[in-house]
Amino acid sequence: VLFYRVCGLGVASEIALPGLIEDRASAPAEVTIRRGPVATQLEGAKAKGPTWEAADGQFLLHIPGVARFLLSDGREIVFAPATEESLADIPIFLVGTVFGILLHQRGQIVLHASAVRVQGFAVLFCGPSGAGKSTIAAALAQRGYPVVTDDVCAISIRPGVRPLVHPDGRQLKLWAHAIERLDLGETQGARVRPQLQKFYVEPRQAYSEPLPLGAVYVLREARPPHTPGIEKPNIVDAALTLRRNAYRPALIARLDQKEDYFHAAASVASAAGIFYLTRALDFAAMPEIIDSLEAHWRDLGLREKAA
Amino acid sequence: VTRTIWLASYPKSGNTWFRMLVANLSATDKPVDINDLPDRGGISSARGAFDFFTLIDSGLLTFDEIDALRPRVYEALARGEADDEYDMPPETPPVRFAKTHDAYARLATGEALMGGAAAAAGAILIVRDPRDVAPSLANHNRSSLDEAIAFMNSADAAVCGGANRQHPQLRQRLLNWSEHAVSWLDQTDIPVHLIRYEELQEDTAHVFRRALAFAGHEATDEQIERAVSFARFDELKRQEEASGFREVPRPTTPVKFFRRGIAGAWRDELTSKQVQAIEAAHANVMRRLGYPLAVETRKPGEAA
Predict the structure, then answer these.
(1) Which three-class secondary structure string do you get for A185-227?
(2) Residue A120: helix, strand or coil by DSSP?
(3) B52 and A129: CB-CB below 8 Å?
(4) Phi and psi torsions of B85, nearest 5°
(5) How many angstroms separate the CA atoms of A82 and A85, rounded?
(6) What distance in Å separates residue A176's CA from the closest CA in chain B?
(7) H helical segments located in chain B
(8) How high is the ipTM of this complex?
(9) Strand, coil or helix: B188
(10) Which backbone phi and psi does B148 adopt, to 5 degrees?
(11) How much helix, strand and coil, in percent to the nearest 5, is found in chain B?
(12) Looking at residue B255, what DSSP letter applies?
């Protein structure tokens, strides 16, 4: 059994999870991952989608051609590979989609976000798949802001103080095109799936203690009517946009988390700030985008050391 | 229940114009903002709806794995399930027009990629003279005319089909221009209503009215007349000039979405060699759709 820390949780896994750092100190585990038989349906399913079913304390996810996953009580993940060949495809789904759903199951606030460290703060970039989260995190890492997490970002809300972000030292994942355009060829690691031109990139960041949340940026492409810049939505829009940027927004209503996300949004907006970052989806614009972020961090007081 | 009607077309054939017409049915005193069209459910290739319903990152799936799940997504949308986390309950218009550029393809299992009758009550197929599609496509893709024609003649043609990056939309297989039209016309899963772009231009109100009747969308003559006038090509172009259009392929380039919108403009945009390249590849379907071939309509003595 291998031990990891994923989004702040100790994990014991029967299979290796590339992109994460093994961490013996994570024992005893709060979550176990093992191979085993998984039924094709759930007894007493209360909600269903094309690939999933949810019942009390149980969640079944089917990724056709890859595996079935059964998540129980936020503590155990059992996977049944579609074939022996599909074993190699499973880790990337385990640490992303499956673990993200597990965090929803645990009632955790979990955002679809990548994050970097700015002084002692975690700065988040949210958006749907393809919004450019990993790319902007990679570009910021090149400028000396270490990556905190990629794609999945767990947050703990604490009354009256800044929310906490749970890093896990997971590696960034980038498509071949982005690696080329960001000139990161030397850092290119293994493919995330044998069939995809998407790769892990070095360096890995060592796991660190939870970080106070510095700011949340929701990524938008500069398309009419949106023009480039950083903008602060009103609190109603901020609350809605945070919910839409939950890791799996479809689960919020199904798992009765609407209230939680509403409170989280209020807390994040008042303690750290929720902003739209609107920019051209163009690698050439990246230096300018980073300059505007650094200026914004000075305004927010994030360039000082975390309290 | 809201009826779903596919609004199917090869790219640059009037799909967006038709959606503008529909959007302007509910306009009263001024044209709808072209950047403010309702886009719930969006285009069939929207990545967001796929990820939302399946809980799986489409960016981690192969194109074929995505295609295998797409019918399930379209069924969910047809049932009226929300494809985003909204505050308001979804409105229930009588008809949901869902844009698609995909060919009507079958999966390895024999199932229809578009989900067949479980995903839509019918389809409106808009076709346009391929000789006019080519210059518009070249402009849209910033490619040469010859490249646009080669694309239209290729059975492997796809949009967002590159494997080295994540495209904003899911891969859409178009097949070649002829196969695209025929795939929709000859499928028997759902009824299909054919519109020719040129006829829509010639008598917009009449062609639009018939399409709405097919879709089961009620509209008064007054609404239709107003929509036709609010969605005139020069109005769409004016709005794009004034404030841009969010659906341009690349906002960082000066390429405009609404270009000329003229039927028959190919006569001064294509060389005779280019016309021949299109006609040779698509003669049968052009005849079937009522586009006379230049090679057959040339008067005696006229130069080739």
Answers:
(1) HHHEEEECCCCCCEEEECCCCCCCCCEEEEEEEEEEECCCCCC
(2) coil
(3) no
(4) -90, 95
(5) 8
(6) 5
(7) 15-23, 47-54, 63-78, 130-141, 145-152, 177-186, 197-202, 204-215, 221-230, 233-243, 272-289, 294-297
(8) 0.95
(9) coil
(10) -65, -40
(11) 45, 10, 45
(12) -
Residue B233, pLDDT score = 92
- Specify whether the backbone of B264 is left (phi greater than 0), alpha (psi in -120 to 50) or beta: left
- Give the β-pairing of A172-175 and A198-201: antiparallel
User: Is the minimum CB–CB distance between A238 and chain B shorter than 8 Å?
Assistant: no
Which residues make beta-bridge pairs with A123? A116, A215
A residues 48-77 lying closer than 8 A (beta carbon) to B: 49-52, 61, 63-66
Structural tokens at position B200: 């829509």
Residue range A230-271, pLDDT digits in tens = 999 999 999 999 999 999 999 998 888 999 999 999 999 999
**Quick check: A298 and A246 in contact, CB under 8 A?**
no
Which residues 259-298 of chain A have a CB within 8 Å of chain B? Answer: 280-282, 285
How many whole angstroms separate alpha carbon A6 and alpha carbon B135? 52
User: b or e along A250-265 (b: 16 or more beta carbons within 10 Å of the residue's beta carbon)?
Assistant: bbbebbebeebbeebb
Stretch B197-205: mean pLDDT, rounded?
A: 97
pTM: 0.94
Which SS3 state, helix, strand or coil, does residue B245 take? coil
The residue of chain A nearest to residue B53, with distances taken between CA atoms, is A49
Contact A172, A137 (CB under 8 A): yes
Q: By C-alpha distance, which of B293, B125, B150 is closest to B215? A: B125
DSSP bridge pairs for B196: B127
On whether the CB atoms of residues B195 and B124 are closer than 8 A, the answer is yes
Residues ≥6 apart with Cβ < 8 Å to A234: none
Instruction: Judge contact between A103 and A110, C-beta under 8 A.
Output: yes
Residues 6+ positions from A293 with CB-CB distance below 8 Å: A123, A140, A217, A230, A277
